[in-house]
Design a protein that fits this description.
Strand content: under 5%
Oligomer: single chain
CATH architecture: Up-down Bundle
Shape: elongated
Number of domains: 1
Helix content: over 70%
Bound molecules: MU-OXO-diiron
Largest sheet: none
Order of helices and strands: HHHHH
Distance between the termini: 37 Å
CATH superfamily: Ferritin, core subunit, four-helix bundle
Length: about 160
Amino acid sequence: MISKQMEETLNKQMNRELFSAYLYLAMSAYFETAIMKGFAKWMRLQAKEEEAHALKFYDFIIARGGKVSFLPIESPKTNWTSTGKVFEHAYVHEQKVTSLINSLVELAIKEKDHATFEMLQWFVKEQVEEEAQANEILSKIKTFGDIPGKLFYLDHELGKRE
Ligand code: FEO
């Protein structure tokens, strides 16, 4: 069993993961409009990953005898002024998600909820990767100068993501 507070917090995190999927899909749509197919594909796959994150919380809440809540999903931002701004946003967003995961871990420790603590370790590791990949792409964009012509190569590279 999970506590009521834990159930509520896990449900909120499931909602934030769905919001993340929405946000990355909005970023994908932005790149589709800009005819940057590689960036669009990368973001679409990222949205899929976020959906999978949400389902991990969904499955866990049910497995622990909790009730899944379907909270409203916030509308994401849909426009940015440059490719660099999109990845700055993604990087800051992932840092926020990390802090939410950390708060959940702290709650699990406080409640001596070992099962939830254990499940969250997957997310702790995943967030290291999520932050690193957003930051790495952002750094490359900064190196290239965020100029459309120079971003062609990066668009091609990101389009290889499977
Ligand atoms: Fe589900 Fe990008 O963190």
